[in-house]
Amino acid sequence: MSFQNRTPDGKEILPRRLLEDLPCKIWNNGLVRMIIDRTHEADTFAVLSQWADAARQKTGQA
């Protein structure tokens, strides 16, 4: 899976510290390439889910 981690104004969508905990490669242009195999699938989605929950709580959307 690949995705652009920057908004048009250059802000990061997912925090770099979150991505560093996942099996992915981060390029300087903001492109993130993540390979999720079955052995890491649950861990990867758990980290992403925790981040999403924290973001919702921070914005009052919990």
Which descriptors would you attach to this protein?
62 residues, alpha+beta, three-stranded antiparallel β-sheet, flat
Describe how the helices and strands are arranged.
Layout: E1 2-4, H1 16-19, E2 24-26, E3 31-34, H2 41-58
Antiparallel strand pairs: 1-3, 2-3
Rg, Cα atoms, Å? 12 Å
Q: Which stretches of 5+ consecutive residues score pLDDT under 50? A: none
Q: Helix amount, in percent?
A: 25-40%
- Secondary-structure element order, as H and E? EHEEH
Biggest β-sheet, characterized?
3 strands, antiparallel
The number of helical elements comes to 2
Q: What is the overall pLDDT average?
A: 79
Total beta-strand segments: 3
- Overall 3D form: flat
The assigned structural class equals alpha+beta
Describe what you observe in this structure.
The protein has 62 residues and is of the alpha+beta class. Helices cover 35% and strands 16% of the residues. It contains 2 helices and 3 strands; from the N terminus they run βαββα. A 3-stranded antiparallel sheet has the order 1-3-2, with no helix packed on it. A hairpin with a 4-residue loop joins β2 (24-26) and β3 (31-34). 2% of the residues are buried.
